[in-house]
Amino acid sequence: MSVLVPLGGDLPEESRALAEALRRLFDGLGISVRRYAARRHRDPGSLSRFLNGTRIPPWEFVHDLIRDVAEEQGRAPTPEAIELMRRLHRTALAYGGSALNRVQALEDELADADRQSLRSAALVRALEGALADTQQRATDLELQIRQLHGHQDRTAAEKNKALQLYEDQVTALLRERQDLMEQVEALGEELKDAHARRVRAERRCEELERQLVAAEEQVPQEDTVAEGPRAEPPAADGTRAVRPGPDGPRAGAPAADVPREAPSGERAPARHGLDPRFVFETFVVGDTNRFAHGAARAVAEAPATLYNPLFVYGTSAIGKTHLLCAIGHHAHRTRPGTRVRYVTAETLAHEYLGAGRGRGLDAFRRRYLDLDLLLVDDIQLLTGQGGAHEEFRRLFDELHGARKQIVVSSDRPPKQLAHLGDRLRGRLESGLITHVQPPERAVRVTLLRRKAEQEGIDVPPETLDHIASHVQRNVRELEGALVRVRAFASLNRQPMDVQLAAIVLRDLVPDRGPSREEDAARRIIEMTGGYFGVTAEALCGKERSRALVTARQMAMYLCRELTDLSTSRIGQLFGGRDHDSVDYADRKLRALMAERRSIYNQMTELTARIKAVDGPPNDRWV
Q1: Which residues is 377 bridged to in the sheet?
Q2: Would you say 242 and 229 are in contact if contact means Cβ atoms under 8 Å apart?
Q3: Given this model, what pLDDT does residue 110 score?
Q4: 482-514 residue pLDDT tens
Q5: pLDDT of the residue at 31
Q6: Full-model pTM
Q7: Is the pLDDT at 379 greater than 50, yes or no?
Q8: What are the Cα distances from residue 175, in Å, to 131, 141, 162?
Q9: Which of 125-139, 154-168, 436-450 has the lowest mean pLDDT?
Q10: Residues 192-226, buried b or exposed e (16+ Cβ, 10 A)?
Q11: Residue 609 and residue 565: Cα distance in Å, rounded?
Q12: Between 20 and 30 A from 613 (CA), which of 32, 130, 133, 483?
């Protein structure tokens, strides 16, 4: 006879809780595992593993066990008991760790979504029946009113009194009809959401099934696989660099990331992370960035001969990343054998922490010491966690000693980067330091004209000049102002003239100035939460109800529009989300403002509240 063994100490808490609940239920049967397995035509070994917590059973087994225990005790199972067991079962599946468990959990969610869709459809049909009945009642009452007017033998006082009574009833029924129509519309939206969730769950199930089949068909690798390639953290533009293994680059890696073999047998050049849009030909030169542009040109044409390192600093969204990528593209175009890598300071720190020790750290260093041109963006985000800035200092010394070019960007000069330490700051100050300032008016007009041509928008020159004269801080704010003017013109079906631009720039977004960006972002989160009646913790949490997701996306959009924080830093303030989530929220809100007036009005009102708040944390609202 199969015997239940004590629950092991290494079981996950979720599996242990489910197993203990199943054991208590099984004790109510008063029979052995083998006899119950024979009754239910199940394998005794599998049943023992279910009760010992080493395997998570399907929901059908749990449901049958609850029903058998209820029959044995002579009473029906309570909905509360069934719901409790369902929650324990889903929790165990969610933390089970295997693809089969995740597929089973998603199938349960799919079944729930189907049941909810059926309930919603039944409720919609019931409400539609009630609506039809209400309309019939309203028709009957209107008929009675007309009949009442036909009775000439009644006195005028009685007629007016009865008429008023019936009219009140009609008004009440019309209000009821309107409420029912609104409920039908709301339920229709919920039905659409349930269908969308069902489709997503089906796609996820298919993906997990494909992964499961691929995992089962995979042939075990040799021991050398452990020393093979490892995927690097994503670069600033979303691409991934590939760490070469002992037999070459990883199979299946994108062609743009895999170094190709040079014809002469030399190592192929690396161009990881360079944005193809950012070249010198698309950089608009003006008085405020002419010196930085000239220095970048000189470095690109003759690396490690004039300015090494080159340090470029300035506020957010004024062209620093553009210059760094342009240097890399020009160096590779003029000298095809050049090994170039663009990386943000955050990505470099993540790579270093992920490399660990031993061979991983050696491979990390080889990957950087093998470069001819290293471009490091946003060096102010390099923290000392795990010795990341010390490792960067060692890489700096090795590359500089080997006469390899280093270009670094930051939002402040080296003297203000106290957290990097004196030794690293001294090395950053040893080369040429250039300052990129906000673009002047002529450059801003040129940037707006290019943006309008890319978007296919016909904007009068005087409107572009008006926007450029009022938005002066950076390119992102400039393009955002053009998007807002376009959205307002689209919603109101008006031409994009100077009068319209003046209204939008005066009422929609206040003028901005850089100061205490993170405090400003936290204030935006708090005020957005208060506007929608939720807490700041909920906005930064994991809950994904529709209203909360919309409020969270609005707060992300405002943080990007009203502060100079990077998208990565904004994502961290919202509970550790990545920069892709912030970019998606920005795109989603721009589209919604152009399509739905309610969203546009909410954004306008919320921005005005932030502007009018007393004692703002950021002086751009003053």
Answers
A1: 344
A2: yes
A3: 77
A4: 888 888 888 888 888 888 888 888 754 444 444
A5: 86
A6: 0.43
A7: yes
A8: 11, 15, 20
A9: 154-168
A10: eebeebbeebeeebeebeeeeeeeeeeeeeeeeee
A11: 21
A12: 483
Cα separation values, 611 from 256, 523, 534, 614, Å: 45, 11, 20, 9
Element at 216 (helix H, strand E): helix 156-217
Residues in the chain: 622
User: Which residue's structure tokens are 């994108």?
Assistant: 254
* Identity of residue 377: D
List the Cα angle 522/508/577 in 5-degree steps. Answer: 35
* Residues 319/323/324/330 CA torsion (nearest 10 deg): 150
By 3-state DSSP, what share of the chain in percent is helix, strand and coil, each rounded to 5?
65, 5, 30
Angle, helices 99-150 vs 156-217, to 10°: value is: 170
Average per-residue pLDDT in the chain? Answer: 79
Task: Report pLDDT digits (tens) over 305-341.
Answer: 889 999 999 988 889 999 999 999 999 899 988 999 9
User: Which tens digits make up the pLDDT trace of 257-281?
Assistant: 323 333 333 333 445 678 899 999 9
Q: Which two tokens stand for residue 555?
A: 């707060």
Within 10 Å of residue 127's Cβ, how many Cβ atoms? 15
Cross-strand partners of 374 = 341, 406
Helix axes 579-595, 546-562, angle to 10 degrees: 100
Torsion-angle region of residue 443: left (phi > 0), alpha (psi -120 to 50) or beta? alpha
Under the banding of pLDDT at 50, 70 and 90, the label for residue 220 is very low
- Whole-angstrom CA distances from 222 to 148, 172, 215, 243, 452 are 95, 78, 16, 19, 55
Structure tokens at 34: 């083998």
Q: Which residues are CB-contacts of 122 (< 8 A; sequence separation ≥ 6)?
A: none
**Contact partners, residue 396, CB within 8 Å, separation at least 6:** 309, 406, 424, 427
The C-alpha atoms of residue 287 and residue 589 are separated, in whole angstroms, by: 34
Higher-confidence residue of 100 and 89: namely: 89
Closest to 373 measured CA to CA, from 400, 395, 404, 398: 404
| Average pLDDT over every residue of 268-297 | 83
Q: Which tops the pLDDT comparison, 217 or 498?
A: 498
- For residue 344, give the 3-state DSSP assignment: strand
